[in-house]
Amino acid sequence: MGAAPAGALDEASAADAVREMFTSIAPRYDLLNHVLSMNVDRLWWNRTARAFTHILRTPGAQVLDLCCGTGDMTFALHRRARQSNIQFLGADFSHAMLMRAEEKSGRRKIRWIEADALNLPLASARFNLVTAAFGFRNLANYDRGLAEIYRVLAPGGEVGILDFGEPKGLLGRVYRVYFRRVLPAIGTLISGVRGPYSYLPASVLRFPSPEEMLQRMRQAALIEVSWTPYTFGIAGLYRGTKPAKGITR
Description:
Number of domains: 1
Oligomer: single chain
Structural class: alpha/beta
Strand order of the largest sheet: 3-2-1-4-5-7-6
Largest sheet: 7 strands, mixed
């Protein structure tokens, strides 16, 4: 189970379609994120970063931000660090997105690599923290994505996956009207590209429920898994830990 853009016939074509969509909106990606979320996305990134302060202030920690896009989650993590020897790595398979991230980096010591989250060119058991903000949902295979995260995590390392959800009740009904009708129209108008903002609501609808996602994380051998809703469940943070000893892959 994974992302399935319109017209995709298999995992390879799904991944290609996602890459092309994000490349097409890279020039206005940041503007659209802030406009469409009414700047609440900044609060979500910062809240996620705060959740991992204990790692970000550990000398020598290594941090990987997967599906990093233009780097906003990576930058939020970097701001929480208090040690100069912490290594930050942002990975994405869209070259255009990484170019924007690099432009925004300034003097921050962050390394950016073009890489597929399902097949990372990185050593196993390396990172103390792996995050993915609003990108995991776009992977062509969620279970393989979790397996790859598990592989690169150091024993005792943690993962944080921030992504959209489906709020319940009256708020949920109102939000769904906005998310499925208003948001695609505004996104298409500003970006000049229709596909990505029609795909977004469909990708959230397809994404596993919190209960199913937590079960998939357990099946990937992660422990201490949890989900914390943000803004009434419009978004939420999935967390898990790689056992310090025992299960290996």
